[in-house]
Amino acid sequence: MKALTYHGPGRRTWGEVPDPVVRDPEDAVVRVDAVTICGTDLHILKGDVPEVTEGRVLGHEAVGTVTETGSGVRTVAAGDRVLVSCISACGRCSYCRAAGYGQCTGGGGWILGHLVDGCQAEYVRTPFADTSLHRLPEDVTDEDALLLADILPTSYEVGVRNGRVGPGDTVVIVGAGPIGLAAILTARLYSPARIIAVDLAQNRLDAAERFGADTALTAADATPEALRELSRDGLGADVAIEAVGVPDSFELCTRAVRPGGRVANVGVHGKPAVLHLEELWIRDVTITTGLVDTHSTPMLLDMLAAGRLDVAGLVTHRFGLDEMQEAYDVFADAGGNDALKVALFRT
């Protein structure tokens, strides 16, 4: 089969690799019908994730059809249309038993495209199929379901829920890429009084307003003082969600939040950020980090099927699977291409 493989910083190849096979009784092999590229994949290609070894098939977000299962798989079968979650869960360790699947100690967590071969391929082996695949309703499209593999549960769990967004809150979201836009979409479920989006690119700020941001500011205009002035009493945001993964955006969040506020870091950081404890210690600010657990995926899938989550517009560019290299080029230059999420489909 063909797959996208990593060969060190800045080097990737779309070419032939061995077909995946069932190795463990709990495995399934899935034919990839739709797949996408994540900002984390770009971090890997920059060399920010040293655990990814040369030759690794990248990708951790896909929709597909089960072609084979191990003898221990009970809840999915060949022919089932499934969502491949970005997180794999053994289902037995103490973290999994508490729905903390991202921290699985039984061989799961974020492994696809990281520690084992991933989804940017014609087929993928998925460990722990019973607890890591989700059967899809017929009326949910491949494209819409693809957004539940990572960005929607990540934004919801690591951003909105960790930040404890509530009714009447002022929410600042720094970064209006796919994660930031998904954070806007899911923050609205909790009726905040105001959502303020910050980004460098005007097309992303326009998208933020389409997805429900009340105010969209360029990074140059979004000074801590300006953000505080937009809050209900001038003290700052109740919640600041960092959705970029660079030091400046994290530090802006810590300065834009009010005393007693919450900073929820979602972005993947490749460089150290300064933590100004000399300023923060007295302000009762809570800072959270996190890898998504995907415990919310079934709920979000139900909402999507019921028409309660409008994800139209998040995918801006579509390709065939064999156009993987072009899709990477477009996504890597998202600003120049007005790209949000890209999707690739089996043709």
From TrEMBL:
Pfam families: ADH_N (PF08240), ADH_zinc_N (PF00107). This is Alcohol dehydrogenase catalytic domain-containing protein. Gene3D superfamilies: Medium-chain alcohol dehydrogenases, catalytic domain, NAD(P)-binding Rossmann-like Domain. Belongs to the zinc-containing alcohol dehydrogenase family. It comes from Kitasatospora purpeofusca. InterPro entries: ADH-like_C, ADH-like_N, ADH_Zn_CS, ER, GroES-like_sf, NAD(P)-bd_dom_sf. Residues 10-344 form the Enoyl reductase (ER) domain. Coiled coil: none annotated. The keyword Kinase does not apply. The keyword Electron transport does not apply.
